[in-house]
Amino acid sequence: MSAPRDGLAAHRGLGLDWEAPPVELEPWLDAAGEVEFQETEAQELYLTEIDLPAHVGDEGRRERYLRALGEIRSLADAGAPLGWAELSAIQGRVLGLRGPAPLRGGDAFARGGQEVYPWSPGLAEEFAARVGYALGNPVLEGVRRYLDLIFFHPFDDGNARAARLSLEFALRAGALPSPPLAPFVRLPKPAGSAERAWDLALLICRGVLKGAGVCPGSLGLEER
């Protein structure tokens, strides 16, 4: 049996300049940024239709997530940051802990053990630095936070939920409505794929525009 792929190393090596997206993506980001904020309940729909049916028997999962979602939205609406302290505290409530969720203390595995996210002594400081700053564009910020949560896999459990909450925070803090989450979550995300990172950003832009009833063609935007 072959050794698992180091997904965290691949993610670290992504080397994207988030402040300089591809030229063809820029008009999509600009167009999505003009959409007025509205409540879409995209998070609630994903929770009810996809997450909960996949976790039957997890008592209190719905209530814990909705409580955390409310806190995330309150932080975003108040213009407050979502750094490590805030994220770990909210994740503690997602998992039903008495306090903040700690950083994992060992290696994490995904994809049936085919991918590993190794633990290292400096992992806490590195991840805290990642979540401690924000990009200027909420769509790119949402994608960056989401991928960091997936591939740093900072918690022993619930990283996918933390990633969805972080995406919600970034979009809402930027006054953008959340698009349907299923296409975004289900799109394969190979660690270290710059092309897929930009695809995710485009997917969010398309979802935001569609939710607002805006036809991309009317803005001169061409589908890839």
Summarize the structure in words.
The chain is mainly alpha-helical. It has a single domain (5-14, 23-212), classed as Fido-like domain (Fic-like fold, Orthogonal Bundle), CATH 1.10.3290.10. Helix content is 51%, strand content 4%. The protein has 10 helices and 3 strands; from the N terminus they run βαααααββααααα. It has helices at 7-12, 26-33, 42-51, 61-77, 84-94, 123-131, 138-152, 159-173, 182-186, 194-211; strands at residues 5-6, 108-110, 115-117. Strand 2 and strand 3 form a beta hairpin. The longest helix has 18 residues, at 194-211.
CATH class: Mainly Alpha
Strand order of the largest sheet: 1-3-2
> Whole-number average pLDDT?
94
Could you state the order of secondary-structure elements as H and E? Answer: EHHHHHEEHHHHH
Give the count of helical stretches.
10
Extended strand count: 3
- What CATH architecture label applies? Orthogonal Bundle
Class based on secondary structure composition and strand pairing: mainly alpha
| Uncertain stretches of 5 or more adjacent residues | none
Distance N to C terminus: 38 Å
The CATH topology name reads Fic-like fold
Indicate the radius of gyration in whole angstroms: 17 Å
Helix content estimate = 40-55%
The fraction of residues in strands falls at under 5%
